[in-house]
Amino acid sequence: MVSSSSSTLLDKVCNSNPGPSVFRSSGTQLWVEYSSTQPSNSFEASFKKLLDPSFCPKNVISNGTSGSVSSPFYPSNYPSDMECSWNITGQAGSRLVLLFHWICLGICTTGRDELYTSKGFVAEYQSVFLDGACSQMIQLTNMSGWFSSPNFPSNYPGNVQCGWNISIPSGYKIYLTFLDFEVEECGSSCTCDYVEVSYSNNFSRKKCGNIPSGGWEVKNVLADNIVVTFKSDSQSNKKGFQAVYTLVSLDACK
């Protein structure tokens, strides 16, 4: 007798059955019950785990400004003998940058490996705006992410103003770090090109020039959101900046 995890009887086999019988469960369990009154009666069966096709669709479209993709079950090992793909669609007037934070794959010469698996991968994507296409406030709602000036790491265009609004859920604080920073130098007041960080309606800090990697960090911000603004004039455009942020639960520090 064979039944699925929903207790639905799939089949009941008795007497001689020379041909193979294939059963597929509707969930994560498959029950097989064997009962015999004769010691000479026996059977042989094999099983194979199959991943639900809906878990790893062939085509996933994301229209957000940023996000992440990862192999199934990451950071645990992915299942064997499977194929996944992601179709990431960015915003109009932008190009997509894909950054792989971790790649650990099993080695095989061709096709899909049915025996060995590894952690897989995790990657983040970001819509990077092209010349003149950075005139709106970008909403960032992920728990972590990164963003950059237009055309980074190439020189940013002139006469643009961009903004990134990072939402901070209740019970969380933010860590913001500028990994690269090369903006036109124009005095301590930064009257030409600049990057400005503001939050809580009473804090604002504006910077320009060259800052070493990690030299500008904004830590332990307790607010509903934090806004990063970038502005350039028509003169002396530079490489720009790249920044990363992480939202951390306040309970994690107790």
From TrEMBL:
This is Zymogen binding. Keywords: Disulfide bond, Repeat. Coiled coil: none annotated. InterPro entries: CUB_dom, Sperma_CUB_dom_sf. It comes from the Eukaryota. PANTHER family: CUB DOMAIN-CONTAINING PROTEIN, OVOCHYMASE-RELATED. SMART domains: CUB. Residues 56-100, 134-248 form the CUB domain. The gene is CUZD1_1. It comes from Desmophyllum pertusum. It holds the Pfam family CUB.
